[in-house]
């Protein structure tokens, strides 16, 4: 009988130990999941804020396409573009024989409205007083 009590006590002690270890493990998992949920909630909150900013910008009329912006500015500065076409994640814009002052104003104003990834300026072959422009503009 004494031996039976000892075995039962040992089994109960083992079960209690297993339950305690399980409780500690589950508690740690719950804590990790809560932290993950908090991180996700922060990201969702930031995304909602960005969505509101985008809506505000669109309602203010700043939702022109990249090609529209390029076209308007090229007309404004009298730049005849050779091409403006999509190329991967960019829109490639090429202009030949552009005056340096117009080139600078065109690029400066374009940078205010779109994200230019790469600019390539060269002297024009036929007239060294003019520039050839190649721009790679990031598409939104």
Which secondary structure elements does this structure contain, and how are they paired or packed?
Elements: H1 2-59, H2 66-76, E1 81-87, E2 90-98, H3 100-113, E3 116-123, E4 131-138
Antiparallel strand pairs: 1-2, 2-4, 3-4
Describe this protein with a few key phrases.
140 residues; alpha+beta; Gyrase A, domain 2; 2 domains; 4-stranded antiparallel β-sheet; 4 strands; 23% strand
Task: Describe it.
- A 4-stranded antiparallel sheet has the order 1-2-4-3, covered by helices on one side.
- Strand 3 and strand 4 form a beta hairpin.
- Helix 2 (66-76) packs antiparallel against helix 3 (100-113).
- The chain contains 3 helices and 4 strands; from the N terminus they run ααββαββ.
- The radius of gyration is 33 Å and the shape is rod-shaped.
- The mean pLDDT is 86.
- The chain has 2 domains: 1-63; 66-138, General secretion pathway protein M, EpsM (Gyrase A, domain 2, 2-Layer Sandwich), CATH 3.30.1360.
- It is of the alpha+beta class.
Helix content: 55-70%
Reported for the largest beta sheet, the result is: 4 strands, antiparallel
| Radius of gyration, taken over Cα atoms and rounded to an integer in Å | 33 Å
CATH architecture of the largest domain: 2-Layer Sandwich
CATH class of the largest domain: Alpha Beta
Number of domains: 2
* Protein structure class: alpha+beta
What does the oligomeric state look like here? single chain
Determine the CATH superfamily of the largest domain.
General secretion pathway protein M, EpsM
Q: Give the tally of β-strands.
A: 4
